[in-house]
Amino acid sequence: MAKKKLKKLHAKDALEFFNQVMVEQPLLPFLVPLVLFAWFVERWVVPFSNWVPLLAAVWATIQYGRFKRRSAIEDLNKRWKHLILNTTPTTPIEPCEWLNKLLVEVWPNYMEPKLSKKFQSTVEKRLKHRKPKLIDKIELQEFSLGCCPPTLGEHGMRWMTSGDQKVMRLGFDWDSNEMSVMFLAKLAKPLIGAARIVINSIHIKGDVCPLLFQLILLHCYCYCYCYFSFILI
């Protein structure tokens, strides 16, 4: 009688243990038949020592086939993009936020001083050779472009085909109220006096169209707002 109770107790413990294992390892019902099938194959059909190289060869073949298909697809995509790029007259619009961010960083300390100096030299040369008859002498006293850089490609940029040339179309918008350009003009006889001309606001808007491997062509419409103050002597 005691032996039967002991057997029932062991069977109950074993069943509880099996249920606990089933909860913790839900894949166990699939693994047990798989292990039994593998043991049967290894025991009666082919030993495992021959399985390992066979499985490795099959896996390597599958991976190599996937790699070749992926490489072929990438190569076709590259060729298709290259064909589209060479045959379409225009390219998709590309954003230029990175270019404007770079321009903001380099404008105050690098570009503005150099451009101001270059423009000042050019303006002074032009004033010497082209002077109105009513002005006896005109001097450029101050020239500064200010700390506000122009905005490039506000609506993006794109490449276009013009004949046999590749042309990049890039919007240009410069609206600055911080520039300072001052001229001092002395009036010629019979007029007597001097005039101070001050420019502190400028608006330039248009398109920058550089040709590939050639010079840059700048087409823009300029709107300058000049403020004059006259000092009569």
TrEMBL record:
Cell compartments where the protein resides: Membrane
Example of a GO MF term: lipid binding
Transmembrane residue ranges: 21-41, 47-65, 211-232
Entry keywords, A to Z: Lipid transport, Lipid-binding, Membrane, Transmembrane, Transmembrane helix, Transport
One GO location term (cellular component): membrane
Keyword Oxidoreductase carried by entry: no
PROSITE patterns xref list: SMP
Biological process, per Gene Ontology: lipid transport
Domain SMP-LTD: 92-233
The protein, known as: Os01g0128800 protein
UniProt source species: Oryza sativa subsp. japonica (Rice)
